[in-house]
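Reviewer comment 2.1 asked that we show a complete input and output for one of the modelled complexes. We chose the magnesium ion case, as it is the one discussed in the main text.
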Amino acid sequence: MTILRSMLFAPGDSEKKMTKAAGIGADAVILDLEDAVAATRRPLAREMIHQFLSSADRSKCEFWVRMNPLDSKDAMLDLVAIVGGKPDGIALPKCDGPHHVVQLAHYLEILETQHGIPVGSIGITAIATETAAAPFALGQYKGAPRLRIITWGAEDLGAALGASSNKDEAGNYTPPYVLARSLCLYGAYAAGVQALDTVQPDFRANDKLLRECNEGRRDGFLGKIAIHPDQVATINEAFTPSSAEVSFAQDVIALFAANPEAGTLSLEGKMLDMPHLKQAERVMAIASRAGR
Ligand code: COA
Ligand code: MG
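Response of the prediction step:
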């Protein structure tokens, strides 16, 4: 499955931003119908997104739509309006657990059939830490239909918990949000889908973004959400293996291939065993997506 290093949000009621977002080099654009669009603008935004999808150049990046939460009256209106535009996927906010993914998958199946779109072609990203119940379900996503990505969010979770802030004095996430981030990572790998790190909302602070990207990459996230065009290049770069990493991974794979009987080997004075081979294969898979 294609890895999406960067997913750039653009408000669905802004023709200008949607157009601009599509040309920035993000692996995917998420056209938003939820929090970035005022309720009164949603009917217009639905039409604009449908129109935009119908004429977008689909060769450079994927186009996703963030719908409204399933328990809102907007949810059905969103899906009915935009599925005919054949988005690559739907981002589902306030996702409480795999049952919400299953429910959305049923709706998509009906609408794909109605529009003559191959059934199953529209994927799902679960934004899976935005309610108080959500973190408890993160270990249960294995086998959830259409699921490609699990990501997390700290802003809505803070609101759900009545928190006055989700960061401490030093600007670091407090324990409830660190837990949500970790569970997102475990949950994604347990489900065999891509772990996507959350947004850095301070979009002028490239140093903070870079630090978060490096931390995310270190921990196993395969990409990160962007909300501003200036964030995309930094994210793409950080989540693309460097040539040194690629050549080391190639060496590891070649060494194991040349010694099929060996469980453990040494390279450059370091011990290598199965986890290293697995990691090397992962690096190559990510690198091939990025065209290296
Ligand atoms: N997608 C596409 N273009 C964007 C963009 C985005 N997410 N964010 C900013 N731009 C454009 C601006 O329109 C502007 O274009 P111009 O130079 O042609 O006039 C340019 O990039 C520079 O923007 P800037 O002035 O730095 O930011 P801003 O104050 O206009 O916008 C935000 C700041 C946060 C409102 C804007 O980045 C945004 O709308 N982000 C997405 C919000 C969203 O979808 N949130 C939901 C998920 S959390
Ligand atoms: Mg939100």
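The pocket of magnesium ion (ligand 2) is lined by residues 35, 93, 153, 155-156 (CB under 6 Å). We note this here for comparison with the apo prediction described in Section 3.2.
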